[in-house]
Amino acid sequence: MEFRSALICTKCQQPIVSGAGFGYVCFKIPGKESYLFFHRRTRSGDCWEAYIKESPQK
Question: What is the longest distance spanned by two Cα atoms in the chain?
Answer without folding.
Answer: 36
